[in-house]
TrEMBL record:
Keywords of this entry: Aminopeptidase, Hydrolase, Metal-binding, Metalloprotease, Protease, Zinc
SUPFAM superfamilies: Aminopeptidase/glucanase lid domain, Zn-dependent exopeptidases
The protein's name: M18 family aminopeptidase
Upper classification of the organism: Bacteria, Pseudomonadati, Pseudomonadota, Gammaproteobacteria, Oceanospirillales
Cofactors required: Zn(2+)
Length: 434
């Protein structure tokens, strides 16, 4: 197992997670690495002039990104990898300033299916996107990352709630407003002004709007006696974004390849930049028009000759909760990528796409596992079924096994990072998709 551990790749992952506290920061981090790898930025509002053999990327809403490489010899198929940039968390309300017992707090709304209990007693920073008006009237957007402990959500002492360990509901409206400072006068606008000046040197600007969320500033860490585990915030699903990016940058460039990382998966993907929106379809139409045959018929042919591997983490078998898994479908951490199957199409895998991925893993000498939810439990979903529905591309759902999904701090296996990267790199290099 130790041979599968790649310390340099793990460090790159930790750096990526640290630099990506919000979907906007994650997209910026990916764009930076793509440009370092020779990818050229495109703008959706501009005309595209694409050349065979070149590499490009484009963003939408600054929180979703698509990167692609074009083969030298005509575009007849695409090897696609899909992931998402967002993670469950606590986002600020528009009028967030509130006070209680002499403390400044900020009101939050829940984004996605958050596991709330682990958010208590954490050191919280704040990150996201802010729109400001300058003195000359210009509106600009800037990324903000207050990467130090500026807030906490304190637990109630057990002496005041003796039954807490028997289980109690958590009310995010009344019990989860982070505490920032003792103050009767400071408000959020004043704080934002100071942070914008501190991070960007912006003075004399008016905050017009924002999309900001709290996050745990504790750094990612390699954990375990033999460095078997990585623990971090936002492994779901920045781990898949990172692995897909590593594979795309490492592939030989001979085949048509595409990486898409959508925002808003955790809240249903129904947005212009989400998987339920037209972002991927728009890019595919432009690719077909520029370097394909250009007709509606050839677009369908291109899509049906392609394959999407939707990458989103899977539920690993938990040593303390073994009964939560089907006894024959409990993926092991560091046991290889997981094929996710659901008869009700909550995952997009079918026998055709599943067989192809198993073949890829065999060729890459990578172990492979399968996950099916217990028949008496509900099942989550991914961008896979949504992308397959919207675009029509044959799709499989896979992912790295992890513990504590949707917690403020999640855990995955260090060896699985390399397992899935190797499989996806081979997939992108494969001459055929049969």
């Amino acid at each position: 197992m130790s041979q599968a551990f790649n310390a340099e790749r793990t460090q790159r992952l930790c750096d990526f997670l640290s630099n990506s506290p919000s979907p906007w920061h994650a997209t910026q981090s990916m764009a930076t690495r793509l440009e370092q790898g020779g990818f050229e930025r495109l703008e959706e509002k501009a005309d595209w002039q694409l050349s065979p053999g070149k590499r490009y990327y484009v963003t939408r809403n600054d929180s979703s990104i698509i990167a692609f490489q074009l083969p030298v010899q005509g575009l007849s198929s695409l090897r696609m990898i899909g992931a998402h940039t967002d993670s469950p968390g606590l986002r600020l309300k528009p009028e967030a300033t509130q006070r209680s017992a002499g403390w400044l707090q900020l009101g939050v709304q829940v984004y996605g299916g958050v596991l709330l209990a682990p958010w208590f007693d954490r050191d919280l920073g704040l990150a996201g996107r802010v729109h400001v008006r300058h003195a000359d009237g210009r509106l600009t957007s800037v990324l903000l990352n207050v990467a130090r402990p500026i807030a906490t959500i304190p637990s109630l002492a057990i002496h005041l709630d003796r039954d807490v360990n028997a289980g109690r509901a958590i009310n995010p409206q009344t019990q989860m407003a982070p505490v920032l400072m003792q103050s009767d006068g400071v408000d959020l606008d004043a704080l934002l002004g100071g942070w914008l000046e501190e991070e960007h040197g912006l003075e004399d600007v008016e905050v017009v709007d924002f999309e900001l969320g709290f996050y745990d500033v504790q750094p990612s860490a390699v954990v375990g006696i033999q460095s078997e585990l990585i623990a971090s915030a936002r492994l779901d699903n920045l781990l898949s974004c990172f692995i897909g990016l590593e594979a795309l940058l490492a592939c030989d460039g001979e085949q048509g390849a595409l990486l898409v990382a959508n925002d808003h998966e955790e809240v249903g993907s129904a947005s212009a930049c989400g998987a339920q929106g037209p972002f991927l379809a728009d890019v595919l139409k432009r690719l077909n028009a520029q370097v394909g045959k250009g007709s509606d018929e050839s677009l369908i042919q291109l899509i049906q000759s392609s394959l999407m591997i939707s990458c989103d983490n899977a539920h690993a078998l938990h040593p303390n909760f073994r009964d939560k898994h089907d006894e024959r479908h409990g993926p092991l951490i560091n046991g290889g990528p997981v094929i996710k199957v659901n008869a009700s199409q909550r995952y997009a895998t079918n026998s055709v796409t599943g067989a192809l991925f198993r073949d890829v893993c065999k060729e890459a000498n990578v172990p492979v596992q399968a996950f099916v939810t217990r028949a008496d439990m509900g099942c989550g979903s991914t961008i896979g079924p949504i992308t397959a529905t919207q675009v029509g591309v044959p799709t499989i759902d896979v992912g790295v096994p992890q513990w504590a999904m949707h917690s403020i701090r999640e855990t995955a296996g260090t060896h699985d990072i390399n397992h899935l990267t190797r499989a996806l790199t081979l997939f992108l290099n494969r001459p055929t998709l049969a």
